[in-house]
Every structure is written in structure tokens, then in C-alpha cells.
Amino acid sequence: MSMTVGELFAALSTRFNHDAAVGLTRTLQWRITDADPGVWAFEIVDGRGRLIPGGVAEPDTTFTTSSETWMAIAEGRQDAMRAFMTGKLKVEGDMMLAMKVPKLFVTGV
């Protein structure tokens, strides 16, 4: 059974790769735009991460996408780079940080 967008974000902390984030202090944010809308931020401070439902005022990188695309990426059914290249995933802010996201979180549910 599929998880909801909110449940996937709640599970994000359990999929966080602490080792890949050592020395990193950044905030990622996701804006989900359609059927199951919302904003979630994930703050990383030197290898530790925490989810911030509702988001933050000034994230380093923001991903904007539909719930369907986000669920597919989070569950490992959609390649994030392909979603970006086809316009299904928009990225604002620190592109280098955006490129690190696949290493920061273990995909697949």
C-alpha cells in the first residue's frame, strides 16, 4: 500500500544518510503543488537532520513538484534528474546541494 505525501516526509528522517551529511549545514525544502499539497523543509546541521513541516522562510534549495512525481521519486520509481529534465521537478537555489540529495537520502520504501 502506498504512503501519503505526509507519511513519506515523516519517514524522511529514517532514510537520512548521516555519514553523507557530515560537515553540511543546509536546508532543503519541498513544495508539493497538487492533490496532496504542502511544504516541508529538512534542516541538516553537520550530519544531523530534522523535518520541519510547513517549511522555512529561506531554504537553500527548494524543489517544487506534484505529489505524484514526488511519491515516484521517493519510492524509487522515478529518476529525480529525469523528472527535472522533463520539467516535472523544478529546483530553485543551490543546485550543487540539489545534486547531493540522492546521496543524502536512501530511496525506496
From TrEMBL:
This is SCP2 sterol-binding domain-containing protein. It holds the Pfam family SCP2. It comes from the Bacteria. Residues 20-105 form the SCP2 domain.
